[in-house]
Amino acid sequence: MNRQTLEETANAMVAPGRGILAMDESHPTCKRRFDSIGVDCNESSRRAYRGLLITAPGAAEHLSGYILFDETMRQSTDTGNRFADIITAAGSIPGIKVDRGTLDMPLHPEEKYTQGLDGLAERLIEYRDLGARFAKWRSVITIGDGIPTNACIEANMWALAMYASFCQDAGIVPIVEPEVLIDGVHDIETCDFVSRATLSALFSALARQNVHIEGTVLKASMVLSGKDCPDQASDDEIAEKTIDCLRDTVPAALPGVVFLSGGQTALQSTVRLNTMNASGVDLSWRLSFSYGRALQDPALRAWDGKAENGEEAQRQLALRARLNGAATLGEYDPNMEQAA
Questions:
Q1: Among 112, 177, 237, 337, which one carries the catalytic annotation?
Q2: Is 219 marked active-site?
Q3: How many CB atoms lie within 10 A of CB 122?
Q4: Global pTM?
Q5: % of the chain with per-residue pLDDT over 70
Q6: Range of the domain at 81
Q7: What is the CATH number of the domain that holds 81?
Q8: Domain count across the chain
Q9: Which of 71, 219, 227, 241 is catalytic?
Q10: Per residue in 170-217, pLDDT tens?
């Protein structure tokens, strides 16, 4: 493990004015998104769409990294240029999703655990040779009646820590993603409580596994009201709660936190990130983004599966990347939406 290289990559991933595009959807998730626009989900359509995202003019200026799915890491353009090489040539960093999805947790109804540790060391070496410089692993924490249990949190945070140690041993920066789901009727106080418990357990587990925090990036949920809660918190309250939660649980040595959009709209994700960065609070780590749907949805709907719409789809992606890049600096203004 070269600590200096890990630190340099992690800091580049959270560089001011830039964030990460999450385009690592599994085939079933990609199918749901394609179904929403009436497009068949197959290798050809996935390659066409993801190729549009990767080659979008102007987007890489505001995107420090791209999280790829295994299939995408191995794909190329019609002219034979590997997607990972295009990302690198544009000054961004290729990354790879390495978890293998969630399963029901035994004896814990309504809770999940993430699989994928078996064979991970070998897979990471292959991905590194294919050009990946960081990886991502997502764990899922559900809020509900009597959940999450301590057992669920501890099992998932242990797996995240094991994954992170495998990554660093292979010279790859780990993104650790303990997603606290937005689904439910819970209020923001409940989300805050669960988020604190989850993040505290995560960093304890990382410490036990000797994970180098300076070479790690956290992908976190914002502290939010459940989407079905009748009392929805304001953007200012979300920003305040999220910052306070992170300050109380995240080590100062961490290079940065990238937020997931997690069911928020594209506009909400941008505004709330900007509210945090414009708050004037002195933080030890950078706050950025690693959005999937919040960056992709406008592009997906503009594309609509038609080659002739490719340029507009790319424009939509570049726009959202630019607006979220401004939000990492606290410089986003709603008028920027109209000006575009």
A1: 177
A2: yes
A3: 11
A4: 0.97
A5: 99
A6: 3-339
A7: 3.20.20.70
A8: 1
A9: 219
A10: 999 999 999 999 999 999 999 999 999 999 999 999 999 999 999 999
